[in-house]
Structures are given as C-alpha cells and as structure tokens.
Please model this.
Amino acid sequence: MRENLERISMVGVAVIGAGYWGPNLVRNIQATPQLHLKTLCDLNVTRAREVLGRYSTVRATESLSETLADPDIQAVAVATPAATHLDVALAALEAGKHVLVEKPLASSYEDGLKLVNAAAERGLVLMLDHTFCYTPVVQRLRRLVHDGELGDIQYIDSVRINLGLVQPDIDVLWDLAPHDLSILDSILPPGVTPVAVAAHGSDPMHTGKACVAYISVQLSNGAIAHAHVNWLSPTKIRTMIVGGSKHTAVWNDLDPTQPLAVYNRGVDWSENPEAKRVSYRIGDMVAPALPTGEALRGVMAEFAAAIIEGRAPLTDGRSGLRVLAQLEAASASYAAGGTFVPVNGGTF
Model:
C-alpha cells in the first residue's frame, strides 16, 4: 500500500452530500492542486447539479454504489447527516477509498471504532474535517502550548454561541461542541488528557433536545476546560481563553485584525511562609502576526498530503474517537443531571 501511495501525484475525489457543507468541500477541493474532483453524489441530483454549475465537467449522480465503484476515485469526502456517517464512510473504506468525514466521526464511539479499525485494516487514510484545527490561530495556540510558552495549562474556557440552526437529529452538544473538543484535543500538551466530563443544558424551546449547554472537562493534570454552546443567542460569540502558569492566550475568532492576544498577566503563588502567598503579575500583551487563508483549504491540503505520503493526518480517525468519547460522556452526564462521567479512553 505504501508503494502504491507514493506513485500518486493527484488524487481523484468524490464528495458525498451536496447540502449545507458539501458546496464548501467542492470549492476547496477544486482549489487544491493535488486533488481532482470527479463526482458530486447526492440523493437530490438536481441539487448536486446546482452546486456544480451549468458548465462544470464534474459528474453529478445520486448513486453512491456507482461512485464507489469508479476506479478513478481514490478518496471521498463525506458531508452527509451524522446518522449516516457509519454506513457511508464504511462503504467507502470497504471499496478501498480514503475517507474525509465531516464532524462528528459517527453517532457513537462504537461506530467510530468500526471506521477506525476498517481504515487501519486496509491501510487507508481516515480523516476528520475538524476545520478549526487548521486555522492559523489554533495552529499557533498548539505551538504555544506544546513549546511551553504558556507554561502549565491551568484552565481553558470557550464560548461558542449564536442564533443558529436547530438541528433535527442532534442536540447542541453534538452540533457545536465537537468544534471545541477537537480544538482541545489538538492543543493539549502530550500527557494531558480528558478524564471526565460533566454537562448541563436546557431546552427552553421545547424541541425535545438541549438547545443551550455547558460542558466541563476534567483534565489529567488537575486543570479544567469549559465550553458554553448555544443555538439561541441573538449575538454571535466565539472566544477561547487558554490560561497557563506563564502566559494566557485569548482568542476572539470574530476579530479580523487581532484574533489572538498573549498576555503576560496572571497570579503567582509563593509557598515561602515569609513572603506573600499571592502576587499579581501585570506584564505586556503581544498580538502575534498570523498568516491568512481559509482553514478548509488547509484541511484539503492535509488530506491530500496524508494520502500521497502514506501517513496519518493531523486530525485522524483516532482524534475523532477521542472527541466521540467526550461527547458520549457529556450526553450521559446531561441525562444523569450533570454529574461527572469518566471518558472512555479505549486504546486511543
């Protein structure tokens, strides 16, 4: 398999699903030199043709089986509803295709594990479209944490609220929290892992599912990560604070001029009985210069590189499993009234 992969210079791709996210995948695949979009597959073939445009040479079809049988297609990008991810992605893997899946990986940890094992058995790339992990801000946050510039992680606080689409098949935890949990998975330093999750939520619209939720994640180093997700806010807020023992990073995703700020401000603790036990550090703020570019373009570049180079992508199937484990713990906690539920660590 490795030898075959090394001879590929351009990867033929099909997109499965022409709904909300599918057109974004189509546009970015077509803008990635190493990828060649061959087919857009959707049960509504009229919709697929509309996405492609009148003069496109990309094939539009409603047949998944015909798409997966095409030898010119080496990979598929799945942008179908979450409940269908297992069936669609597993069929693609069994057909020998590399797979990129929109979040979440599957509807359960058990189903996600089936996909991870199927890809591993066949030597295929299984990648999650955890788009935020490919933004310049999150990549810089990852370096700041992994290089020790922030010091020991003390807390992480995230807010992701807007007047959003109330999903018919999943609650706000499974809709929005995968973004925050995937970012958490990406930036945490080696050796620090989520160990338990507590979730509280409400359904003020009486939709039968949580529309507002708060998640707390206990980390193995004693720190805590917190996320607020909400479909009902009249204003859109996307912020994350990563507090460290040396510096604190503040990310405002809606600020185009200064999305990331690193503060040399915080609280220092002294155990010397002759000195004050608490002191406050008031230092400078630095706004790092960040490159520009669409994150989804980075997703596609990583997908292509992983296939061509025969390696695991940054957001591989195992990262999707780790996110699923936290989501399942959050759902169990919500159902149990908000108690902390251990995270299924598995072997990943």
About this structure: The CA atoms of residues 134 and 295 lie 5 Å apart. The first strand starts at residue 11 and ends at 16. Residues 1-6 have pLDDT under 50 and may be disordered. DSSP finds ten helices and 15 strands in the chain.
